[in-house]
Design goal:
Number of helices: 3
Radius of gyration: 16 Å
Structural class: mainly beta
Distance between the termini: 28 Å
């Protein structure tokens, strides 16, 4: 794989992580992010320093940093990290997920086994599974970042590795569930279904579509 192609496997291609204050270092390879989050949260201890509404449900090793708000009706099932100034409304955050500084999760949204960086919004009827989402991203209403192969009978727990195609080369993710990578400042239109293994670089412009899949390099303009 050429250097120009291998850059699509690097987290730094998609996200500027240096300006995002997280309590653990992130890996260089984008497909290693989920394992790093899993490992760090695996040893986390429950700490609720932020504001947790009495009608929120918070279970297990959940960290809510100072300045974060967990509102009435929210469900957080740890391990999970809700960073400073983040907001979780009437949605579900679970199973080794990080909601980054200033990011917002709203009504009827589910975020699972994912890293969401800073100042990102998923506010209405959104599912994000096994994904990496950059900073200043908006995930439009009723959009789905799906994480499971459906080109064969679905088996739970999943057993088949997910692959992506980069520069004509098939690359393994090392994971049986993997959603998407959305780079910094991507604005995902409402009602978009994002296929497993989709890679979207920073500043990509996505025009309204019902299905998105593949690799989209930085600053591309995508019409389907």
């Amino acid at each position: 794989m050429s250097p120009n192609t291998s850059r699509f496997l690097e987290l730094a291609y998609y996200c500027d992580t240096a300006s995002v204050p997280l309590p653990f270092p992130l890996p260089e390879a984008v497909f290693d992010v989920k394992a790093r989050v899993h490992d760090w949260l695996g040893s986390a201890c429950r700490a609720l320093s932020g504001t947790v509404h009495p009608r929120a449900e918070v279970e297990g090793a959940v960290i809510v940093e100072s300045g974060a708000v967990v509102d009435a009706g929210a469900v957080i099932i740890g391990p999970a990290l809700i960073c400073r100034d983040a907001y979780v409304g009437r949605g579900l955050v679970r199973d080794h997920t990080v909601i980054g500084p200033g990011s917002k999760v709203g009504y009827s949204c589910e975020i699972t086994r994912s890293l969401i960086l800073a100042e990102t919004r998923a506010m209405h009827f959104v599912f994000v599974g096994d994904s990496v989402v950059g900073s200043h991203v908006n995930i439009g209403s009723s959009s789905v970042l799906s994480n499971l192969r459906v080109d064969r009978p679905v088996v739970e727990p999943a057993v088949d590795e997910l692959f992506v195609t980069v520069g004509g080369t098939k690359v393994g993710t090392g994971q049986t569930k993997f959603g998407a990578v959305l780079g910094d400042r991507v604005q995902l239109p409402a009602l978009t279904s994002v296929a497993p293994g989709t890679l979207v670089g920073p500043d990509v412009t996505l025009y309204p579509t019902d299905q998105l899949g593949g690799l989209y390099p930085t600053e591309a303009r995508v019409r389907m």
